[in-house]
């Protein structure tokens, strides 16, 4: 992009930002800990959804030392519903690193910030510019969209070449912008989020339209370009909600699968959508946890859906009333007994939370 066009872009953007920036709780924040928290929470999350989580984390873990010292279950519970749970685990690991290996001092250079677990180039640039005024340009989905449309650049944003092109262009723009680095980064992201939106951008009322290549050539709907389409693998979960009086059994997911460290009911993963009651009764969780006890299937939920980045989860909940007490501790394996009224104390994946919150589905047993 020519230098004059880049100047036009940054000057108009700065003028737009002066009258339009979004009032968000972390704006103007100087504390690198809080800036880091907000940036990790906002990865792959809309601002409106992330805001209450940011406020909750600031309230429950006001300093990096508080976060480092917190039990993992407390952090997972505070994160519950936000998705991409590896972010919460990385947040905890990075807090321990800052608190215990750096004496509580947050790194103040781009390279130092990049050392924190879960911090990639985008997050490091955001923290470095917002907290310390360092000249590193952020490149997120908003920035890709604005730059590809304004510059008329059809290089795929998910290709190695495209990433390099946009990163270089974003950096050039930051260096000529009439704003400090943190404000410039905020301006382009706000502009992408609220004005040059993915669908129905405000082109006819846009301060950049005169020089915007996509607008001038009628290609706004075609940019940015993505190379790969995400294919979602379908998985079918059957949850055994085995009720022993007021208690059910749950366990914490471990291993390198989705929802690590979240809780769930005993699970039967099945190769296809439908499973019969007979198949459920013959399954391993039933054999281990119910065995020969008398048991009645009281309710089967309609299939519930949750879309993850690379997987589509369908879950059916089998509410079973079991006679007699739960298995003895020696037979429980990874499962723990929990009273139904206390289930809200555990962090569950969204699909289970929705199930528990839906009174028309969740069986109210005493
Ligand atoms: S004219 Fe439309 S496409 Fe171009 S920058 Fe403005 S809002 Fe975005």
UniProtKB/TrEMBL annotation:
Family matches, as PANTHER family: ADENINE DNA GLYCOSYLASE (PTHR42944)
Q: Keyword check for Transferase, yes or no.
A: no
Summarizing the function annotation, the protein's role is: Adenine glycosylase active on G-A mispairs. MutY also corrects error-prone DNA synthesis past GO lesions which are due to the oxidatively damaged form of guanine: 7,8-dihydro-8-oxoguanine (8-oxo-dGTP).
Q: Which GO terms describe its biological process?
A: base-excision repair; mismatch repair
- Main EC class of this protein? hydrolase
E.C. no: 3.2.2.31
UniProt keyword Chaperone present? no
Q: What reaction gets catalysed by this protein?
A: Hydrolyzes free adenine bases from 7,8-dihydro-8-oxoguanine:adenine mismatched double-stranded DNA, leaving an apurinic site
Q: Which cofactor does it need?
A: [4Fe-4S] cluster
Q: Which gene encodes it?
A: mutY
Record protein name field: Adenine DNA glycosylase
NCBIfam families per record: mutY (TIGR01084)
- Entry's InterPro entries? A/G_AdeGlyc_MutY, DNA_glycosylase, HhH-GPD_domain, HhH_base_excis_C, HhH_motif, MIG/MutY, MutY_C, NUDIX_hydrolase-like_dom_sf
């Amino acid at each position: 992009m020519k230098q004059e066009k880049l100047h036009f872009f940054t000057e108009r953007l700065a003028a737009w930002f002066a009258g339009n920036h979004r009032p968000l709780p972390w704006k103007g924040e100087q504390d690198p800990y809080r800036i880091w928290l907000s940036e990790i929470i906002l990865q792959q999350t809309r601002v409106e959804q992330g805001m209450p989580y940011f406020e909750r984390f600031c309230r429950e873990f006001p300093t990096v030392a508080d976060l480092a010292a917190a039990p993992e279950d407390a952090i997972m519970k505070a994160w519950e519903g936000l998705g991409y749970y590896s972010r919460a685990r990385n947040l905890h690991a990075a807090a321990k690193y800052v608190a215990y290996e750096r004496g509580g001092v947050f790194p103040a250079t781009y390279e130092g910030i990049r050392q924190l677990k879960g911090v990639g180039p985008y997050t490091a640039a955001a923290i470095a510019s917002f907290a310390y005024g360092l000249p590193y340009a952020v490149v997120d989905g908003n920035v890709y969209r604005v730059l590809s449309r304004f510059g008329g650049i059809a290089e795929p944003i998910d290709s190695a070449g495209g990433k390099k092109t946009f990163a270089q262009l974003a950096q050039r723009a930051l260096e000529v912008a009439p704003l400090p680095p943190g404000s410039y980064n905020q301006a382009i992201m706000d502009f992408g989020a609220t004005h040059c939106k993915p669908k129905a951008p405000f082109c006819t009322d846009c301060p950049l339209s005169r020089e915007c290549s996509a607008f001038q050539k009628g290609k706004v709907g075609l940019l940015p370009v993505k190379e790969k389409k995400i294919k979602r693998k379908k998985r079918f979960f059957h949850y055994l909600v085995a009720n022993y009086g007021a208690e059910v059994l749950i366990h914490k997911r471990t291993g390198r699968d989705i929802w690590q460290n979240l809780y769930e009911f005993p699970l039967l993963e099945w190769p296809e959508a439908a499973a019969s009651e007979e198949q459920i009764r013959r399954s391993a969780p039933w054999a281990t946890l119910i065995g020969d006890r008398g048991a009645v299937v009281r309710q089967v939920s309609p299939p519930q859906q949750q879309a993850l980045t690379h997987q589509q989860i369908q879950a059916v909940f089998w509410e079973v009333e079991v006679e007699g007490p739960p298995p003895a501790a020696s037979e429980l394996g990874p499962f723990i007994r929990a009273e139904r009224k206390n289930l809200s104390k555990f962090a569950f994946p969204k699909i289970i939370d929705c199930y528990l919150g839906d009174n028309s589905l969740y069986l109210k047993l005493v």
